[in-house]
Amino acid sequence: MRLIGTYFSPFARRVAAALVSRSIAYEHEALNGYADPVRARAFNPVGKVPILILDDGEHLIDSAAIFDHLNELVGPRRALVPPSGVARRSVLRLSAIAATILEQTTAYSSERQRASCAQAMLLERYHLQIVGGLKALDEVSGPAGPIGAKPLDVATISAVVAIEYLAICYPELEVRQIAPKLAAVAAALADDPAFTRTRPATH
């Protein structure tokens, strides 16, 4: 099994963290789809990471679809997403919120880099989406909620990756004030192998 995508990509990183959390061996190619779009398109026609190449050569694209395959691979007892019912819907909902934080953090960072051309309305929109997502995750973080529970599931993995990604791309955001319980969960899990082994070394 081979994972294509730099760990600075939060979507590639959350796949890597899921693989590590379930002790699934994989090779890693730290491909940056923006820096090398030709090679990225060789793996995925739309040039995005992550791509998970299975042992039989099949290419899986999009982190949500990859999680679906990993769920089948590990079976219900070690599932990253519960098999059915309220628990499954909850994990998928929280994972989707965390994924939106990742998307809008990238959008915010990219827009801000436009300097004098940056649009204040867009920055405000992205900021509000990020803050709204953080508050929603914070409500269910910690001992009384699903975010932070063990074994790690897709929602907790995505939430921790989102907190660490914000620290890189939007460091001035007061995450501890906005989402103190979520920040505490991320701090408590910072030394978990799923995150230490996938943490990007540099921007």
Structure report:
The structure is a single chain. This protein is mainly alpha-helical. It has 2 domains: 2-78, Glutaredoxin; 85-196, Up-down Bundle (Glutathione S-transferase Yfyf (Class Pi), Chain A, domain 2). The chain is 55% helix and 6% strand. It is built from 9 helices and 4 strands; from the N terminus they run E-H-E-H-E-E-H-H-H-H-H-H-H. It has helices at residues 10-21, 37-43, 63-74, 85-112, 120-138, 154-169, 175-178, 180-188, 193-196, and strands at 2-4, 27-29, 51-53, 59-61. The chain has a 4-stranded mixed sheet, with helices on one face. A hairpin with a 5-residue loop joins strand 3 (51-53) and strand 4 (59-61). The radius of gyration is 17 Å and the shape is globular. The mean pLDDT is 94.
Task: Describe the structure using short key phrases.
single chain, 203 residues, mainly alpha, Glutaredoxin, Glutathione S-transferase Yfyf (Class Pi), Chain A, domain 2, 2 domains, 4-stranded mixed sheet, 9 helices, 4 strands, 55% helix
